[in-house]
Design goal:
There is one protein chain. By secondary structure, the protein is of the alpha/beta class. It has a single domain (2-21, 30-72, 89-178), classed as Rossmann fold (3-Layer(aba) Sandwich), CATH 3.40.50.2020. Helix content is 27%, strand content 28%. It is built from four helices and eight strands, in the order E-H-E-H-E-E-H-E-E-E-H-E. The protein has helices at 9-27, 41-57, 110-119, 166-169, and strands spanning 2-8, 33-38, 63-67, 98-106, 127-135, 148-152, 160-164, 173-178. The strands form two sheets. It has a five-stranded parallel sheet, with helices on both faces. Strands 1-8-7 form a three-stranded antiparallel sheet. Strand 2 (33-38), helix 2 and strand 3 form a beta-alpha-beta unit. The longest helix has 19 residues, at 9-27. Keywords: Glycosyltransferase, Transferase. GO terms for molecular function: uracil phosphoribosyltransferase activity. Pfam families: Pribosyltran. Residues 6-166 form the Phosphoribosyltransferase domain.
């Protein structure tokens, strides 16, 4: 496997800070806006965004939750073995709110579609926006586009983007994994 680092350490932190300033431009003090991290990996990103927004705005009243989409996915019955769901931690109603869905990587769009379906259990939002750290923009199966993007990556289906978070993986890093090209023998 060939690895190429896309973001790490300070560059990742600067990217998160930039995204937070974009959110502030559109949502001001977050009095009618909420952050929802998509479980499992988007929750780490949502936590970072929440921490940064709270520090910038000096506001600890921003509402943030985590959403599990396991049973809303269109492929969950196709998986072998038991399916394990994460927990939802949304202790507020999203009725009439502006919701910012947050995930680490946008690839086919299926995760986001499932998240929008799951979100309706908590009310009907006024508006839903999407923030992703990485947008793999040429691999979409559904017509879903993010409102806020950390980094756009042009990749093929055989490549994989892996996001590591300090809290879970011991380091902050985004890498692109590729199979090595087969060497030509003549």
């Amino acid at each position: 496997m060939q690895k190429r680092t896309l973001l790490s350490g300070q560059k990742l932190q600067i990217t998160i800070k930039r995204l937070c300033h974009q959110l502030i431009e559109n949502h001001n003090n977050f009095s009618n806006s909420v952050l929802i991290g998509i479980q499992p990996r988007g929750a780490f990103f949502a936590d970072r965004v929440y921490q940064e927004l709270s520090a910038i705005l000096k506001n600890d009243h921003i509402q943030k939750g985590n959403l599990d989409i396991t049973f809303f996915r269109d492929d969950f019955r196709r998986k072998d073995g038991l399916v394990t769901a994460s927990s939802n931690t949304i202790d507020f109603i999203i009725e009439g709110k502006q919701v910012i869905l947050i995930d680490d990587v946008l690839w086919t769009g299926r995760t986001i579609r499932a998240a929008m379906d799951a979100l309706l259990a908590y009310g009907r939002p006024e508006r839903v926006e999407l923030m992703v750290l990485i947008d793999r923009r040429f691999s979409r199966h559904l017509p879903i586009e993010p409102n806020y993007v950390g980094l756009k990556v042009d990749s093929v289906d055989s490549q994989k983007v892996k996001v590591s978070w300090e809290e879970n993986d011991g380091e902050d890093k985004v890498i692109l994994l590729s199979e090595p090209s087969p060497s030509k023998k003549t």
